[in-house]
Amino acid sequence: MSAVINKIAVMFIIMAIGFLLGKIKIITNDGNRVLSSISLFLVSPLLSFVSYQREFSPSIARNLLVTLGLTAVLYAVQIMAVMLLVPKNRRGSEIERMSLIFSNCGYIGIPLVQSVFGNDGIIFLTMNIAVFYVLTWTLGVSLMTGKMSLKQTAKNLCTPAIIAVVLGVVFFLLKIDLPDVIHEPLQSIGDMNTPLAMLIAGSTLAGTNIFSCLKKWRLYLLSAVRLLLLPVVCAVILYGFSFLGADKMVITIVFIAAACPSAVITTMFAHRFGGDSVYASEIFAVTTILSAVTIPLVMWLLSVMGISAVM
Question: Structural domain boundaries of the chain?
Fold first, then answer.
């Protein structure tokens, strides 16, 4: 558990540097958007793809399916819970629902899993991220707009993150290994993910009035649901699946993704679809700050339950 706390501390120090760079305008709003695009469309997809460059193993293939199944179950439970907890007719309900359902499994989850398990863990987290993008571009768009076009949804699903996972799985199953001259530069770019993601998260926080956010009680209530209630529910469900023989590393990785703060993509969607981007940013800011305390706390709970791969 001390290893997890140390890794979170390292991540938040890098985030603090990003916050400082954002405050003194070395990373501007436009610069942050460029860095986000590089991370979203290049670095994270390459990290996902390269994680599949390994010798084929039936156990890995089986655990990928287990990860996919567990992720689907947890999302289904969280979606039902959030729909019940946040009434549709409440002002800002679309922002709150999306912020509670979708965790920052990319910007926070990938660095944390990579720090703890290396690429051996990233390969399983990619299954979670694939489900995340499928749901954000279907359910997420529906929440924000109140409608959903089948044609536009199909187009939206052709994201680099999903394409990278599909290609990675194909290469893995067909046992296609890249030559070193190609693999090494792709791996080097993928290795940029953790520091880049933390700098982006920090500079994003710099654009939010944090002191104003910390005075709003509603944000603490939403944070308690996103960071404590939902992870505890997920831990109980995963405890049940542990009796079916689910691998502890897979359980831990799926849980880490569920324990992350609200996804920054909610703010991006609010900008894109005319939602309350300021409110989305506030939820992102407060949950991200508080997650420095809650992630070790809920990880400790998983350890006490005896189903964590990190002790």
Answer: 2-304
